[in-house]
Amino acid sequence: MASGFQNSQDQLTPNFYRVTIDASGYPTTATLNTSGGVEVDDFNSFTTLPTSLNNSRRRARGNMRWQAIIDELSQFTQPMILDITSLEAGPSTLDESDDITTSLSFTVGYAQEEYVLGGWQKIIGAGTFSDGATSLTTSTFEALSAANLATAMQNCIKEAITRGITRGGASAGYTRTYRTMDPTGADSSFQEAITILQPDTPAGVWADLTVAIEADLTQTA
């Protein structure tokens, strides 16, 4: 008797995946373009603002990497982003703009996973993901079991996040105009060019990521 399970791009019953980024080993020196980690919030999201221009720039870099993660996750279809949690060292949540996120968690889901899988299959091809070892299945969406599809999606999500965090590479840099603030200036908030470099190698960033099925949200066939 048939199980009733069928992969279909029109099924629209999304799986959800819980992502955790361990950013505790990323550079924190505010003057470095590798610093800033991944920060969901801009400086003006806090009551206590940056105490220096360099600290403001560091937070801007982290916020640029978060935007880069969203860009990468959105390449092939719109993701659902839920339940974002940013933590300082230990169990504390961030409450000041100078705080640095050491652990960031969020849930991501897609209504049409076929587009994500197919998109990354075109990019990765016969190669490997950023860890240099993991390959992506070449099977079509429809041919995969639910378990194998989940594994493939976890790896695709992990790759997207790795590429977002490492945007700018080790030397070329990625620059955009971003709002920062100088607490000593008369016009404290202004726009300036901010550059980011990768806080770690792609393989190192990949190793700091955990992507797991979100059991409380995931739909079952």
Notes on the structure:
The protein has helices at residues 53-73, 113-124, 146-165, 202-207, and strands at 15-22, 80-87, 103-110, 174-181, 189-196, 209-213. The protein is of the alpha+beta class and 221 residues long. It has a four-stranded antiparallel beta sheet with strand order 2-3-1-6. A two-stranded antiparallel sheet has the order 4-5. Helix 1 (53-73) runs antiparallel to helix 3. The longest helix has 21 residues, at 53-73. The protein starts with 14 loop residues before the first strand and ends in an 8-residue tail after the last strand. Mean pLDDT is 91; it is low at 1-6.
Put the structure in a nutshell.
With 221 residues, the chain is an alpha+beta fold. Helices cover 27% and strands 20% of the residues. It has one domain (15-213).
In terms of per-residue confidence, which ranges show pLDDT below 50 for 5 or more consecutive residues? 1-6
The share of residues in extended strands comes to: 15-25%
Order of helices and strands: EHEEHHEEHE
Distance between the termini: 15 Å
Structural class: alpha+beta
Mean pLDDT: 91
> Measured on Cα atoms, how large is the radius of gyration?
19 Å
Strand order within the widest beta sheet: 2-3-1-6
| Main beta-sheet annotation | 4 strands, antiparallel
Q: Note the total helix count.
A: 4
